[in-house]
Amino acid sequence: MDSLFDAEGGAENRGERLAELSRQVAVCTKCDLSLNRTNTVFGTGDPSSPLMLIGEGPGENEDASGLPFVGRAGKLLDDILAAVDLDRDMVYITNVVKCRAANREGGRMKNRPPTAAEANACDPYLQGQLEAIKPEIILCLGGPASKSIINKNFRITKDRGEWHEVYGAKTMATFHPAYVLRQHGEDLQKTKRLVWRDIQEVYKEYQKAMEKRN
Ligand code: URA
Question: CATH says 11-213 is which class?
Answer without folding.
Answer: alpha beta
